[in-house]
Each structure stands twice: as structure tokens, then as C-alpha cells.
Amino acid sequence: MFTVRVTAQPPVPVPTGTAGRAPGWADAGLVSGEAVELDVRAARLGSRVLALLLDIVVQAALTLLLAILLSALATQLLPAGLVDGAFFQGLATVFLVFALVGYPVLFERFCHGRTPGKMAVGLRVVSADGGPVGLRQSLTRALVGVAVEWPGLVLPLLSWVAGVTVMLTDRRGRRLGDLVAGTMVVHTRTAQSWRPAPMIIPPLVGWAVTLDLTRLDDALALAVRQYLTRAHGLTEPSRTRLAQGLWSEVAAVTSPPPPRGVPEPLLLAAVLAERNRRGALRLRRTRAVTATLWPELHPVPQLTPAPQPTPASTATPESAPTSVRPSVPAARTGPPALG
After folding, report:
1. One Pfam annotation, family name (predicted)?
2. Which residues span the domain enclosing 270?
């Protein structure tokens, strides 16, 4: 039996702008079983249209490939009286139903709510409560989409306008099929921009060079790097508390101790920068040894030297002017000729 004690706390203001995430970042409104709002963004019109265009290309390619294969097999295996125009019309109807209904249902069922187009864009279909999409929900989405959205068998132009209007006005960017089936489409990739780890400040360079980092493992170094690259999105006092906890772990496996009065994030940045510098130095030494032992693995590019202009004062023998005086004949070295 666990007892949870709940105390009243004043509301903490949520920062906005570049230092923190905007209130509309996690706009999907999904809440976990622990009553924690998930950091998930709802897919809007632009990304969903891009995924739809990619899916249309894949659907057309699969339909064409299946049509060619099945038509060839039907022509060879079935009697000639059965293969006529009506047979090919029925086969085309089956291919159309497979492309428009079977394609999204099968992929969403067996690929965790993702079609090839959604995989490329980074989208996924989930239930309205954040759970995995079911077979009935996928089938409902597909049928409603074919009927009133894409290709829109019922009043195509009017249904397209209605579908776009619903997506633009819905808070979660859902279309008509999502509203009927109780689903929504979310992003599986974060839009957080990559930030490099902070560099070491000059006053800590002398201390960082003397550090013993042999006991600093890769897992702890990765945790430090993740903190330094994401600290801008954290709020106080969580940011300072996390930095102090990480530095206590790093200080336990490194020596000598740092100068007093330096904030923990600067110390973590100095340790990480020194570790990266030593790793880059070892890599250069290894490459130099490899190039010495196996020069064929590191071919040196042959550069064609540019022609150097010849000074006018130093003329080559070919370009020297011929003298008026005849040259001296060469001396004989063999025996004299007999008369």
C-alpha cells in the first residue's frame, strides 16, 4: 500500500520564447495514465497533405505492378472465354478498392498507424486518447476518406472544401475521418533545433588539461552532453538541480577538484570539451599510424603543379642564341684509321 501526500503549491509560470517551450508546443492534448501531458504535436494540414501525396505515388506504383502481374497470370491460366472486357473491368474495381481502402488499413494495422507516406514525413495515426489505432478505426477512416475527402466520391469539390475547413478549424487538426473514427494524427519527430555543446571558457583551460578522465564512462559523458544541449529548455530550479546532480557524479570519477566558485554547467562543459579534445587527438594519431603502416589505404592526391614563368635573365639552352663561331669537333677516343 502506497500513500501519496499532496500539498498545495503555487502555479509555476511557463516560460515562452526561445528560452522555453511555447504553451502550444504539445498541442495534441494527450495525457498519460499518470496524468502527465505528453510532449506530442498534432499533425496539421501541410504535413498531412505531403504524406498523402507520397502515399498516392506509392499506391499508383503498387496498383500498376499488381495489375500487370495479375493480368498476365489471368491471361495464361484462365480460359480464353473468361478473360474479356468485363473481367478486366472487375479486376480494375478490385485494384481500386485495394489502393484506396486496403492500402491504408493494412499499413496502419501492421505498421503501427503509419503508411509509407507517414513514415517519410514522420507521422502516425493514434486513437483520440493516445492509444494504438485499431482495425475498425482504420477501416472507418479509410471509408470516410474515400467517400467525402479523397478522392471524394460524394460531391468531390464540396467535400474537399468541407474537409479542409474542418482540418483548419479543429484544435487537433483532425479531418472528417478522424472525427468519425475517434483518431488523430501526431508527429513522431520533435522539431527541436540541434544545439552544439557549450565550449570551455578560457579560465578553466589550465584545470581541464590536468584532468584524469579515465574513469569517465561513455554513458555519463552522454548524459552530460544531453543536459548541456537541452538546458535551454529547462526551467529553474530543475535546471540547477539537475546540473548539480550530474556534477556530483562527474566529480566522483575525475580529479583534481575544480576551482571554487565556478557554476556546475561551466564545469560540465569544460569536462566534456576536454574529453572531446583528447578523443580527437587520439583519432588523429591513429590515422597517422594507419597511414604510415598502410599507405595504400590513405592515397595522397596528386596535384598537378602550375607552370612557373621563366625569368628573362635565366635563359634555357634551347632558347639561347647560337654563336657565330663554329663549335670545336669532338676528340677521337678509338684507334687511328689505317690509310
Report:
1. RDD
2. 202-296
